[in-house]
Design goal:
alpha/beta; Rossmann fold; N-(1-d-carboxylethyl)-l-norvaline Dehydrogenase, domain 2; eight-stranded mixed beta sheet; 15 helices
Length: 339
């Protein structure tokens, strides 16, 4: 029986706890930052705040204490918001065993360092003579609500450690949750993060009342600039044609459950960002943070990312969405296949 700690009881962390709890053969502890969330799950077996309507199996033990969540954990699944990853791992470090396998399921980049989540985790655990952890990244098209209700879902786990990938594939898969393996950690993590920016842009198109032509063009060109940055950072272009690239991009840019797309829709309707965030009731749209980090990465690698630049201007400089779309459409002519 595997002991698994899931750190983060938002919608995605809760959805993963349902998958792992219903599979059998696991003892799962689900750590919630908010004590009320943990107590609510213990009392009613439902996360009413982040994933209402979906029962959490009895094999899942909620807790508000990191030491309890990590006690004896063989696998740690990290599902906290990207900007809290470093701080929470610093808190967890004294309670972690060196042999514990770490799977990052957070789709974002750290704003201050521009680092992917596995890089942040390794920074913390290797610091001051620490150890080099065994880390992988889980990503792909996976709305938490659909995963929780058992809709067929396929994702990928990426690690340079083939044994780790195979172990996660074996331990996490069930008849409705299929896991593929990949060794391109850079591509899988960047794909999962960057697609959120394009999803905001797609939502803006919808909010402006634009049609399918516009959104299809936006997604396609968004994938092109995602791929440019992935390759410039050392990832593989073919990863962007897979689950963590095109798969997640299409889902997040078109699906009604997408928080990032929803932010874009409201921006396109000329609502102000603080008002939109307030209406999300504590849920995080990672694309708002990833956009700043992506612009920094693109500049450092001298990669052209016009869609990302325009979304950054809308989010952080108050640019009009209509003006941003106009600038994208009136750029000088390019070759579609130019690198």
């Amino acid at each position: 029986m595997s002991q698994i700690a899931i750190i983060g009881a938002g919608a995605w962390g809760t959805g993963l706890s349902i998958v792992l709890g219903r599979r059998g053969g696991h003892r799962v502890r689900l750590w919630a930052h908010e004590q009320a969330v943990s107590e609510g799950i213990a009392r009613g077996r439902v996360n009413q705040k982040f994933l209402p309507g979906h029962r959490i199996p009895d094999t899942v033990t909620p807790t508000n204490t990191l030491a309890q969540a990590l006690d004896g954990a063989e696998i740690l699944v990290s599902v906290m918001p990207s900007q809290h990853c470093r701080g929470i791992f610093e808190q967890m470090r004294p309670h972690l065993r060196q042999e514990t396998i770490i799977v990052s399921a957070t789709k974002g980049l750290e704003e201050s360092s521009l680092e992917r989540m596995t890089e942040v985790i390794m920074d913390v655990l290797e610091a001051d003579g620490g150890w080099t952890p065994r880390v992988g990244a889980l990503s792909g098209p996976s709305f938490a609500l659909e995963v929780a209700r058992g809709d067929p879902t396929a994702v990928t786990v990426a690690s340079s450690d083939a044994e780790l990938g195979q172990l996660v594939q074996r331990e996490f898969s069930d008849p409705s949750f299929r896991i593929y393996t990949n060794d391109d950690v850079i591509g899988v993590e960047l794909g999962g993060a960057l697609k959120n920016i394009v999803a905001i842009a797609a939502g803006i198109c919808d909010g402006l009342g634009l049609g399918h032509n516009s959104i299809a063009a936006l997604i396609t060109r968004g994938l092109a600039e995602m791929t440019r940055l992935v390759v410039a950072c050392g990832g593989r272009a073919e990863t962007m044609a897979g689950l963590a690239g095109l798969g997640d991009l299409v889902l997040t840019s078109t699906g009604g459950l997408s928080r990032n797309r929803r932010v874009g829709v409201e921006l396109g309707r000329e609502r102000k960002l603080p008002e939109i965030i307030a209406d999300m009731h504590g849920m995080v749209a990672e694309g708002m943070f990833t956009t700043t980090a992506a612009v920094g990465l693109a500049h450092s690698r001298q990669v052209e990312m016009p869609i990302t630049e325009q979304i950054h201007a809308i989010l952080h400089h108050g640019k009009s969405p209509k003006d941003a779309i106009h600038e994208l459409m009136t750029r000088s002519g390019k070759s579609e296949i130019a690198v």
